[in-house]
Amino acid sequence: MPDEASSESRATILRLIEESGTPLNVFDLTERTGLHANTVRGHLDVLLSTNVISRQPERATSRGRPRWLYGTAAAQPSPYQQLAEVLATELSRIGDDAATRVGDLWANLLPPLTAAQTPDEAVQEAAAALDQLGFSTSVNPAGDTITVTNCPYEALVADNPVICDIHASLVARVLAQIGQPVTLDSMDVWARPGLCQAHLLRSDLIPTRTIRAADLDPEGKHS
């Protein structure tokens, strides 16, 4: 049965991770299992959701997004959990400009960012920076929206919504450091459960024409 096959494949992936002396990436696991990369990612998501494995971004050695590395779940809290606990304690003690100040400080902790040569490259660099901090990101085809999932601080957001303001400030600061005319316009928090969207302003994205729904007749024809 398909469910049994999926369970066996997932068990194989878990065993490979547990028996490996070092964390593995998706491509390591595809080579060892013969499964498609998207199938491996699906099994890894299930294992992550049950906290039997952990992941961390590979140390970046070149421009572009770092790969995720998967290992056994650590007994000790992850650095993100530890920082979250500190944030939960300290957020009530800081002023109204906390989000901007903390976002700026956090951006300064990132490895030096390479000046982007194009707006598209700037958006990819910003997404890669968020990946290095433990988020999962994707960029839409137009390059004006970064979707953010797997927030390491998700459990704290309900009681401390200012955390999302900090993340938005971080995105704005990272874009400013990259040196292209791309800025943060807005951040949709929990556009869907567990998913946020950073909407960007880009001077190079100018549509040739915009058709507004109000200008259409009831049958969908342009008036």
Task: Give an overview of the whole structure.
With 223 residues, the chain is an alpha+beta fold. The protein folds into two domains: 2-72, Winged helix-like DNA-binding domain superfamily/Winged helix DNA-binding domain (Arc Repressor Mutant, subunit A, Orthogonal Bundle), CATH 1.10.10; 79-202, Muramoyl-pentapeptide Carboxypeptidase, domain 2 (2-Layer Sandwich). Helices cover 43% and strands 17% of the residues. The protein has eight helices and six strands. The protein has helices at residues 2-19, 26-33, 37-49, 79-90, 98-108, 119-132, 154-157, 162-178, and strands at 53-57, 68-72, 136-139, 145-149, 182-192, 195-202. The strands form two sheets. It has a four-stranded antiparallel sheet with strand order 3-4-6-5, with helices on one face. A two-stranded antiparallel sheet has the order 1-2. Strand 5 (182-192) and strand 6 form a beta hairpin. Helix 1 (2-19) crosses helix 3 (37-49), helix 5 (98-108) packs across helix 8 and helix 6 (119-132) crosses helix 8 (162-178). The longest helix has 18 residues, at 2-19. The radius of gyration is 20 Å and the shape is globular. The mean pLDDT is 82.
Q: Into how many domains do the coordinates divide?
A: 2
Q: Would you state the CATH class of the largest domain?
A: Alpha Beta
What is the assigned CATH homologous superfamily of the largest domain? Trafficking protein particle complex subunit 3
Helix count, DSSP H or I runs of 4 or more residues: 8
C-alpha termini separation: 55 Å
What is the 3D form?
globular
How are the strands of the biggest sheet laid out side by side?
3-4-6-5
InterPro entries: WH-like_DNA-bd_sf, WH_DNA-bd_sf
GO molecular function, one term: DNA binding
